[in-house]
Specification:
- The protein has helices at 10-14, 23-34, 47-56, 88-96, 161-171, 197-208, 225-230, 260-269, and strands at residues 5-8, 38-41, 63-65, 70-72, 82-83, 103-109, 114-116, 151-156, 176-180, 187-192, 215-219, 233-236, 250-251.
- By secondary structure, it is of the alpha/beta class.
- Helix 2 (23-34) runs parallel beside helix 8.
Length: 270
């Protein structure tokens, strides 16, 4: 069988609702890698929030973070690295519209660190930022922001995060991408215009000299639409948002909490 590139979203897709990867999934993916297929994590998360999954899967190749803004091989120099940034002026504008956007917290994200608003510190789950606790040094103070971030991460208490994402994009005159994460949190992520998971995968496939017909992608949310549309074969999870379904070729028989990715891949390859 031709070697396949298997692109996996994390939240709501590979990860269970409790943020874990089951032994069955780990064992299944190990067998698929042994057959010569390549697994790529493609996530809205920064690397520090995805490195545990990367380590558990025993990956050594490229990884895509920040919804496509960062393509890299973790902890290694690589000529194929792609590091995109969003103009910091969008951060300042989002801060100016903090209440209008029904914001719980807003973070300016970089490869190695982040800064976050502290007005609702009690609502910030440290684990989604890959740190044991939120400290004063992480406070988002405008004077600290001297570099353009890779992404902006926002939690909202808006009743409809998809509607809010559309409204924010309109506010910014469609000059940025605003997508939602999977999983239980009401997270929106701002990316540079034109940057999404498909953008990064196209770059990666060119580096690997692979055709997109050999790309199989799995996702569950709004930020997976372009990836599933781009892939030769796109799977929406059984638990996927209805927003994603029109972009998928297939729907998995099982949810993320039922090892849906691994069961589907076992059916294809094993």
């Amino acid at each position: 069988m031709t070697q396949k590139i298997i692109a996996l979203d994390l939240d709501g897709t590979l990860l269970r609702s409790d943020n874990t990867i089951s032994k069955y999934t780990l064992d299944t993916l190990k067998k698929i890698k042994a057959l010569g297929h390549q697994i790529i994590i493609v996530t809205g998360r920064p690397y520090r929030m995805a490195q545990e999954a990367y380590r558990q899967l025993e990956l050594t190749g490229p990884m895509i973070n920040f919804n496509g803004a960062l393509t890299h091989i973790p902890e290694k120099k690589w000529s194929g690295e792609l590091n995109m940034r969003i103009d910091k002026d969008y951060l300042f504008e989002a801060l100016a519209n903090y209440d209008a956007f029904e914001t719980d917290f807003l973070a300016s994200e970089y490869r190695k660190n982040f800064y976050i608003t502290m007005e609702n510190r009690q609502l910030i789950p440290p684990e989604i930022f890959g740190v044991p606790k939120i400290t004063d040094q992480m406070a988002l103070i405008p004077e600290k922001i001297t570099r353009d971030p890779n992404a902006l991460l926002m939690q909202t208490h808006a009743e409809d995060k998809y509607l809010l994402a559309d409204q924010i994009q309109q506010h910014f005159k469609n000059e940025v991408e605003v997508d939602s994460w999977g999983g239980p949190l009401n997270i929106l992520e701002f990316s540079p215009k034109g940057v999404n998971k498909a953008f990064a995968l196209k770059h990666l496939l060119e580096r690997l000299r692979k055709d997109k017909q050999n790309l199989i992608a799995f996702g569950d949310e709004h930020n997976d639409t372009e990836m599933l549309a781009f892939a030769g074969t796109g799977y929406a999870m059984k638990n996927a948002s209805n927003t994603l379904l029109p972009f998928a070729n297939f729907i998995t028989k099982y949810s993320n909490d039922e090892d849906g990715v691994a069961r589907q891949l076992a059916e294809i390859f094993l």
